[in-house]
Amino acid sequence: MNFRHKLTNIFLKYQRFMQGRYGFDEISYILLGVSLIFSLISNFDKLWFFYFIALIPVGFAVYRSLSRNITARISEREKYLVLAEPIKSFLKLQRNKYRDRDTHRYFKCKNCKATLRVPVGKGKIAITCPKCNTKITKKT
Ligand SMILES: [Zn+2]
After folding, report:
1. How far is the CA of 83 from the centre of ligand 1 (A)?
2. Quick check: 45 pLDDT over 80?
3. What is the tens place of the pLDDT at every residue in 77-136?
4. Cα–ligand 1 centroid distance for 124 (angstroms)
C-alpha cells in the first residue's frame, strides 16, 4: 500500500467516523479562538493556569463536533446567529462608514433609529427617512 492509498484510507475512515455527527460550525471556531487567546495568556508567568482553562473551550468544540444530537447543535447555532446579528451589523456599519468616509455621512433617524446615508458637500439638507418618512435637517 503506497502513501496515497494510506492517506485515502485515513480520510475514508475519518468520513465514516464523522457520519451522523455534527461537525464544525461558527461556534466551534469561536471556541477554538477563545482557547487560543487563553493559551496565549498562559505564557505570562503568573497566569500559567490559563493553559488548563484553555482546554475547556477546546473540549466543548470537540464535544459539539462529535455530537450525534444534531437537532440540539442546530438550535444552539440558531441562538448564536440571533445573538451575533447585532454585532455583525454594527461591524458592517463601521466598515461602510470607513469606506465612505470621503463621500458620505451617516445619520441615525431620531424616530425609528434607522441609519441614513447621505452624500457630503450638499450643505444644509432635509433628509426624509425612507422607513418612517420622518424629516430631519442636517449639514453635510
Ligand atoms: Zn425613520
Report:
1. 24
2. yes
3. 999 999 999 999 999 999 999 999 999 999 999 999 999 999 998 889 999 999 999 999
4. 19
Distance 113 CA to ligand 1 centre (A): 6
Q: In angstroms, rounded to a whole number, what is the distance separating the alpha carbons of residues 8 and 125?
A: 66
Burial label, 115 (beta-carbon count in 10 A; 0-12, 13-18, 19+): middle
Looking at the DSSP bridge assignments, the partners of residue 137 are 126
111 C-alpha to center of ligand 1: Å? Answer: 5
CA 33 to CA 77: how far, in whole Å? 17
Alpha-helix runs per DSSP H in the chain: 3-18, 26-41, 50-53, 55-66, 70-99
Ligand 1 centroid from CA 121, angstroms: 22
Distance 137 CA to ligand 1 centre (A): 13
CA 107 to ligand 1 center in whole angstroms: 10
The pTM for the full model equals: 0.71
| CB 68, CB 20: distance < 8 Å | yes
